Amino acid sequence: MDATRIKPPLGHDNAWWWEMAAEGKLGIQCCSQCQTLRHPPRPMCGVCGSMEWHALEASGRGTICSFTVLRHPQFPGYEYPLIIVLVDLEEGTRLTSQLVDCEPEDVRFDMPVTVKIHEDPDGFKLPVFAPAGSGA
Ligand SMILES: [Zn+2]
User: Fold this and answer.
1) pTM, whole model, 2 decimals?
2) Is 53 helix (H, G, I), strand (E, B) or coil?
3) Which of 7, 13, 98, 130 could cross-link 136 (Cys pair, CB 3.0–4.6 Å)?
4) What is the 3-state secondary structure (H, E, C) of 87-127?
5) Ligand 1 centre and the CA of 72: distance in Å?
6) Mean pLDDT, the chain, as a whole number?
7) Which of 104, 86, 83 is nearest to 96 (CA)?
8) Phi–psi pair at 42, nearest 5 degrees
9) What tens digit of pLDDT does each residue of 21-50 get?
């Protein structure tokens, strides 16, 4: 692959999540007051309004709760078709990610998946998911 993937915008609210990804970890933000998990990262708890939170490392196990296969438009740095999945993590929160090592016609609802850290040629790391038991 020659093209470089479009990098996500890093801000105060999500930089920690990408730093965990760079260490090969899937992060989940957890409210320190009521322990509600949330994703994507944001400053305030939607349940209790607390601004206090800490990060947990997810087990990386989950099931597919929804998915969509993107064929167009095609951005450089991605392989198509791209399978975008909404994963129900076993911790109880949901995460939008990409499914790899799977053909679009083989994706099913409730399919067990595990996290896998994808690394671009330039070293950028991104948590993606693969079918559980595929050797990830
Ligand atoms: Zn809370």
Assistant:
1) 0.86
2) strand
3) 130
4) EEECCCCEEEEEECCCCHHHCCCCCEEEEEEEECCCCCEEE
5) 38
6) 90
7) 86
8) -150, 160
9) 999 999 999 999 999 999 989 999 999 999
* Both tokens assigned to 78: 């991605």
85 Cα–ligand 1 center, Å: 26
Residue 31: closest CA among 60, 11, 8, 56: 56
Please state which of the four CATH numbers 3.40.1280.10, 2.60.40.10, 3.40.980.10, 2.40.50.840 is assigned to the domain occupying 15-131. Answer: 2.40.50.840
Q: Give me the count of residues in the chain.
A: 136
Instruction: Tell me the one-letter amino acid at 45.
Output: C
Ion ligand 1, residue ranges at CB < 5 A: 31, 33-34, 36, 45, 47-48, 50
Q: Is 102 in contact with 131 (CB distance < 8 Å)? A: yes
* Contacts (Cβ under 8 Å, ≥6 apart) of 9: none
Alpha carbon of 67 to ligand 1 centroid (Å): 28
